[in-house]
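Example 399, ligand magnesium ion.
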Amino acid sequence: MAHPTASTPPSGPRQGVVLLGATGSIGASSLRVIASHGARLALVGIAARTDWRRLSEIAREFSVRNVAIFDSKACAEARRSGAFAGDVRILEGAAGLAELATLPDARTVLVAVVGTAGLEPAMAAIAAGKDLALASKEILVLAGKFVMAAARRHGTRILPVDSEHNAVFQCIEGHPSSGVRRVVLTASGGAFRDWTGEQLRHAMPADALKHPNWSMGPKVTVDSATLANKGLELIEALWLFGLRPDQCTAVIHPQSIVHCLVEFNDGAMLAQLSPSSMTFPIQHALLYPDRVEGVEPPIDFTRLVSLEFRPVDEMRFPMIRLAREAMVAGGAAPAVFNAANEVAVEAFLGGRIPFLAIPAIVGNALARTANFEPSDLGAVLAADSEARRGASADVLSFK
Ligand code: MG
């Protein structure tokens, strides 16, 4: 039997979507979802860091008239190139992304940019009352306190796009939060799931980039290999669902079919299952609360063999322990964890440090920082810069 057929699209105007990070991996999956639900969704704005050539193709294909390019040199090239039609507005920098995020015909702003560049546009979207579909983990890891408070103040909905958080959102919906005992995020275990500690000493970037299940950008693929990604996701879950640190846990699940387990006080667990493709959570977030036919076929139980679960080995993967410590410490510690990790991963990908230097550098950064409770976003960003400086100096000590 085929999966349920698409329901009749709603009459009236299509729902406007702004896609920040249109040229990345989440961007590509989002475009597939938008293209196959053209009667419901209209792409009204797109942004990227530098890749204006790809942006111009997307603008033509989806008739998008508002474009933003974060990098000013790339933006100048794009304006000179003539690659965009005459009626396309080309906005620049963080302010340009923030302006896209408040376009009058946008209902949903999907933030899928790497790093902290998504913070300002996300805050702008919240203040403008847009639905915020959130794929960039950094936003909640750095600024969860401020983002969630602003969303409450403006009555803005935050729809998680990260597969695990989207799964928790689906399982928790309709249940009072007082009934939730804990949330268990699944982790594939990444490229080094079955490597020994000795093998990890010699792990190369090309090894780390071979993810068993998901196709993603290089930063998050390395983060999967260290389990830093799961650590960032635990912190993200804490903010999204208003949990305590001891309620956020992870389990290794090699098949990446079950995306979360939510355990209630009575011991019952609800799980969310779907194939390991981002089109599933993206469609859920963009069309929420409607359930219509997906872009890809669902799980085929005539072919699926087994679902396994194993505990996380914090000895081999110390990044998950460091993330948990940062989550428990709160304050600026998660921002420090994130910043030092970004510097270390970039250095690892560039061949400047060995794989096991990543947790060493992040551990140093956390140990050297006197933690504090940031009073505003500026204080968080200052802690972020300070941690980057310290981690960069640490990187140099490895050669
Ligand atoms: Mg994830």
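Summary: Residues 377-396 form the longest helix (20 residues).
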